[in-house]
Specification:
- This protein is about 50% helix and about 5% strand.
- Helix 1 packs antiparallel against helix 6, helix 4 packs parallel to helix 6 and helix 5 packs across helix 7.
- The chain is α+β, with helices and mostly antiparallel strands and about 200 residues long.
- The model has no long low-confidence stretch (mean pLDDT about 95).
- Strands 2-1-3-4 form a 4-stranded mixed sheet, with helices on one face.
- The protein folds into 2 domains: about 80 residues, Glutaredoxin, CATH 3.40.30; about 120 residues, Glutathione S-transferase Yfyf (Class Pi), Chain A, domain 2, CATH 1.20.1050.10.
- It contains 7 helices and 4 strands, in the order βαβαββααααα.
- The protein starts with a strand and ends in a 7-residue tail after the last helix.
């Protein structure tokens, strides 16, 4: 078993943090997406979407998409639970994780992939207007999260979950846009709590 990743990318980092929270050690193999290693015939056979991470099981089965990879490890190693422990918790974690994906990580990644010259070969076509349009979406998501965190410690409720992992990976990835948290006091408090967890540096 091993995981193909690009260490600097946010989605593989999601998996690393998740594994660290589970106390699991899985070997990683680096794929240099900036050298287009993800577009080789060999890698495309593992993931036709040509993205990382990809989990390859001992029998050759491959699982891509970071949340699907995390779900595999949740099912095979259920403690500690990171997808919720009852129907309501699971639904809330799913809701906030999807919000973190679609309303936070996706706009940040879109702004980066469509405006940074280094991404021109990976994002074809690069549409600068779309990249810039996502900046306001990022602002709206940060405002929402800051407001929500007035009344709770974690993104999806009372317990740390994959929703927190997705959100911290997204917010930290804002660095590629030259952005950081400034006036979002509740988000800043939450981020400091995330940074204090040993898994943060995984």
């Amino acid at each position: 078993m091993k995981i193909y990743e690009t260490r600097i990318a946010p989605n593989p980092r999601r998996v690393r943090i998740f594994l660290a929270e589970k106390g699991l050690e899985i070997p990683f193999e680096e794929i240099d997406i900036m050298k287009l290693d993800c577009k080789t015939e060999e890698f495309t056979a593992k993931n036709p979407m040509q993205r990382v991470p990809v989990l390859e099981l001992d029998d050759g089965t491959t699982i891509s998409e970071s949340v699907a990879v995390c779900r595999y490890f949740e099912e095979t190693n259920p403690e500690p639970p990171l997808f919720g422990t009852n129907p309501v918790e699971r639904a809330q974690v799913e809701m906030w994780n999807r919000r973190s994906d679609f309303n936070l990580l996706f706009p940040i990644a879109s702004a980066f992939r469509h405006t940074h010259p280094a991404m021109a070969e990976l994002e074809v076509p690069q549409v600068a207007e779309w990249g810039e349009a996502n900046q306001s979406k990022i602002d709206a998501a940060l405002a929402l999260y800051d407001d929500e965190l007035k009344s709770r410690e974690f993104i999806a409720g009372d317990c740390y979950s994959i929703a927190d992992i997705t959100a911290i990976c997204a917010i930290d990835f804002m660095r590629v846009l030259g952005r950081k948290l400034e006036d979002q006091t509740n988000l800043i408090r939450w981020r400091e709590a995330m940074k204090a967890r040993p898994s943060y540096t995984a």
